[in-house]
Amino acid sequence: MTPAMARKDDPMNRFALTTALALLLVGCGGTASKEEIAEGEDKVHGALQTVNRGRTLLEILGILPSYTCGEPRRDFVGRLAENVSKNLGCAQVATSAQSDFADAVTVTFPAGCKLGDHELGGELALLYSGGIDRFDASIDFSTMTIDGELVPANGGYQTCGDQSQYWGHATGTLVRNPFLIDFKLTKVDGIMLLGQSTLYLDGRAAIETQRGTDEAVFRELTYKAGDKSPSGGELVIAWPEHQLVARFYEASGIFSTGQLELIVDDKDPVKLPIPQ
After folding, report:
1. Contact, 182 vs 169, CB < 8 A?
2. Which of 119, 151, 163, 204 has the most Cβ atoms closer than 10 angstroms to its Cβ?
3. Beta carbons of 245 and 7 less than 8 angstroms apart
4. Handedness of CA 8, 10, 16, 20 (dihedral sign)
5. Which tens digit of pLDDT belongs to each residue from 45-73?
6. pLDDT tens string 99-133
7. How far apart are CA 84 and CA 62, in angstroms?
8. Beta strands, E only, 34-152
9. Which of the 8 DSSP states describes residue 68?
10. Which residues are registered as beta bridge partners of 201?
């Protein structure tokens, strides 16, 4: 991974500054060229592919049961296997007590195990701690595969009934471009399971290209059940030559598909169909 992708050289305030500068420049006039619009669409598509990696990881966690405040941790771990089998019959679960304060869970996905359109393989490792008042989990995806590719990612969550916080960090390669992404789940409508819920994601990403690094910040990107692209939220991307703001809107009125408002540098906004 190149130095530009290293986390120590990529602090959150750098993304915040990028966002602030982009928003200050929005709407100052002028018309974006066809080439600028096409490049902007391409940048949005690449960023959304990266965000979708985080989304898929979160949805995979939906096979796990919700923790109820006051429930002893060992009782929860004991019913986890039943819940996983119900949501994903091909998965196998093993549990072990690590101490008086923590339990380990390993979910194994044998050949041919599928969740939605994705084929899962390898193992998902979780370490649960706490219980009663607060319940924490650390998650290691690194020995798991999604559609035949290893998932160099880790994450975690704190939960108590319907009040949950999920986050993750992932690296990888998309179309020969290395990327990293830090993300968190800010809200869930429905059951957090692949294709059965609406997710709201915040985070940041960096994607290496032949011309430099694309840096992105996303806020409340909204993914409805079954949709491949967001129907709400905002994405800000900066790269060596330009910067853009992309806002997503649901289909309404005369528009049969969702709309993307694209603002390149200080040019006038352009409305486009949301890329699928």
Report:
1. yes
2. 151
3. no
4. positive
5. 999 999 988 888 887 877 777 777 778 88
6. 888 999 999 999 999 987 889 999 999 998 887 77
7. 9
8. 92-97, 102-115, 118-131, 134-140, 144-146, 149-150
9. P
10. 185, 221
